[in-house]
Amino acid sequence: MRSSGSGPRTQAISGRFVEDFGPGGPTFADGLQRYAESTVPVLGNGCGIASPAAGISDLPPLTVVYGGGGPFGVAYGFGVADALLSGGLPLRDIDALGTSSGAWVASCMAAGVTHEVLCALPPIRVPNPLPGWIRRTANNVFGDVHSERVRVSAIQLPTLRRQILSGGRFPLADLVAASSSMPGLFPPSPVGQWLYVDGAVRSLTSADHAPAARNLLVIAPLAGPMFGAAGRAMERLLTRETHRWTKATGGAVHLVRPNTAISRLARHPLDLFDSHKARMVYPMAYEQGAQLLRTRPALASLGRTALAA
């Protein structure tokens, strides 16, 4: 849908999403699984993966996917990423794909924005019907910065098709706003001439559209023990996505997801938007990331491999 207006079609689409994803709604898990397993067409627009013509040894050593999860997901993704950065993984200098809150983390990494900067922002109020609120907030953080290393997933209106949008073509502020505009919580956000809503409506990671590389690091805030049935649905989708990515590229996948202690901080979908809990998540996620470097030699070696490339 062109961004010049929002007619009845937009309202109907948003209402359809609210039915499944509305705050506190009893169909949260069922809705997530329904959309996760849907067959909505994908428009790759040149930013998705493709089967590499050259051998895997010619691919970049590492790429990263940051999944969605509200401010909780931002804190989790940032905590893990900062720990891995400290351990030598050059996450600020590699290609990244972000979805929803993961778009914020991917863009912050590329733009050199720290977690402290995001913590200083006013708390998010949901639902927030004010048009452009997310976009203005993102613009305050990123300005007009572009980065070819960043891609985000967002859903185009009214087609409901997933688009993988490039930070080389559009400002990061526009991309993170579009990828974070969850229907029922925030209005659609424009990128170019089109309106978009949260990429998590289609997939919380879109890992199957990560850039080709020898290794794919997936940081998935809502996988594993999160939200019971919803978390299991997310993990099933993520498994299918990473299998497709591996089949197309021949690369290896390294998955990072919350441990049980972290998952206990978010027992209800609205907990994902609790700024106090998000602040609690960051140090726990940082410690988990640091522990992974100690216990997963293959993960720790990615930093040396990437730096040597």
Tally the helices: 11
Oligomer class: single chain
Unreliable runs: 4-53
Shape from CA axes?
globular
Radius of gyration: 18 Å
Average pLDDT score: 82
The secondary-structure class comes to alpha/beta
Identify the CATH class: Alpha Beta
How many beta-strand runs? 9
User: What distance separates the N and C termini?
Assistant: 42 Å
Look up the CATH topology. Cytosolic phospholipase A2 catalytic domain
CATH level-two architecture = 3-Layer(aba) Sandwich
The proportion of residues forming helix, as a percent range, comes to 40-55%
Describe the largest sheet.
9 strands, mixed
Motif (GXSXG): 98-102
Keywords: Hydrolase, Lipid degradation, Lipid metabolism
Active site: 100 (nucleophile), 198 (proton acceptor)
Domain PNPLA: 65-213
Structure write-up:
The chain has 309 residues and is α/β, with parallel strands linked by helices. The protein has a single domain (8-51, 60-308), classed as Cytosolic phospholipase A2 catalytic domain, CATH 3.40.1090. The chain is 43% helix and 14% strand. It has eleven helices and nine strands. The protein has helices at residues 8-21, 28-36, 70-86, 101-111, 115-119, 133-142, 172-179, 229-249, 260-263, 275-295, 297-308; strands at residues 42-43, 63-66, 96-99, 150-157, 161-166, 189-191, 194-198, 215-219, 252-256. Strands 1, 2, 3, 4, 5, 6, 7, 8 and 9 form a nine-stranded mixed β-sheet that branches. Helix 3 (70-86) links the parallel strand 2 (63-66) and strand 3. The longest helix has 21 residues, at 229-249. The chain is globular and about 45 Å long. The protein starts with 7 loop residues before the first helix and ends with a helix. The model is unreliable at 4-53 (pLDDT under 50). Residues 65-213 form the PNPLA domain. One of its GO terms (molecular function) is hydrolase activity. This is PNPLA domain-containing protein.
